[in-house]
Amino acid sequence: MLILNNIHLSLNYDNYPKTGEIDWLSVDIDDHLHIQTYENKELELPILEKYSPKPGDVVYIGPGCNIPRIKLKDLMINNAIKSTTDFNKATHLFIDTKFNAIVTDSWFYLENSKNILEFFNLAKESDTLLESQELEYIQNLIKDCPDDESIGISHQVAHRISKKVDPIYSKARISPTGAGSVYNNNFKFIVAEYVDLYNFIQSNQDKLYNYKSLICHINSSDSITIDEKVFDQLSAMFNSEDADNHILAMEIMANSNYLDSLMYLEMLFCDHGHVINLVKTKKHVNFKSLTDFLGKYTNHLNSTNSHDIIQSLIDKEVVTLEKVHYVFEKYKNEFYTGSTHFTVKEVTLSDDLLKIVNENYVNTVQEDYVPEEREKVEEEKSDEFSWIE
User: Fold this and answer.
1) What is the pTM of this model?
2) C-alpha angle 228/237/266, rounded to 5°?
3) Residues forming beta bridges with residue 150, ordered by sequence position
4) CA-based diameter of the chain, in Å?
5) Which domain holds residue 323?
6) Are residues 199 and 272 in the same domain?
7) Positions in the chain short of pLDDT 50
């Protein structure tokens, strides 16, 4: 799509009556954009979610991927793989599946090329508004566009073209159209420096990997695994009022073995997300690598609940009946809602989760009630009947 972001006009309101004539119209030559538009449907790509490092792999880390470089270096050394900044040389492309870094957006107003040319031809006939070289420049840009092709221009120009409200139209005896409002459109397009990468991705889909599939490999094999004991220690650190303890706890989380520690990592976010969310180091690439892996938003790290813990275990394919039971026992009051007159006696898993763990599960959350022994009180019956007068 062609974007004419180089056309500016100023209106003259000094005279009376205020006609709103164009005081000056400027065209900055060589200041225009040929953008490659982007639609989400274009990115329904066969992106692989699992990766196993193999000697000889050449990996390219795409823009927007939070991978600590020092950890990536250790991964390369330990697995005899290489990294490259030239995507053409890569055997594996690790990308942000949302393309946040290579896609941007902006507001443009649309008008078809035929109406734009008409406007500038009339402006040239007004002598003082447009130079011949400026008109020629516009004509050369638009000459290959179909008459009905939409072109992005500024609001001021689009408004005057759409409604034909400028005096240049009345001088040419072209009546105002009275058309409705010019609609603005929020376009997503590929950042110019990443157009080649985007096109390469489209034609090399067999090399595409979700960069999160690399994150679980970046912490070395001797990384700490968070178990119940470590979880309790980290919880105590978050419960303290010492900000340094919070930072240290987050550093331990970021340097842990993500998959082996997954249940406890999610529990830490569930129990202490309100603290973590306030720590500035949450934006450090090392910690963002963890939050990216878990699919959490940096500014909303206090939103994890007990259901999210189970879902994360399922999504990362590390769910077991033992872990489900552990999470349920810790957060059982969050998994069901009682009422004034009824409560839950037994809980089992959903059909989907039962199939995953492939075991039956019934958890009795309330034991049978044992009735109290009470004396029966018999009412005395009287055979006498009396009137009260």
Assistant:
1) 0.66
2) 50
3) 112
4) 124
5) 314-364
6) no
7) 16-18, 180-182
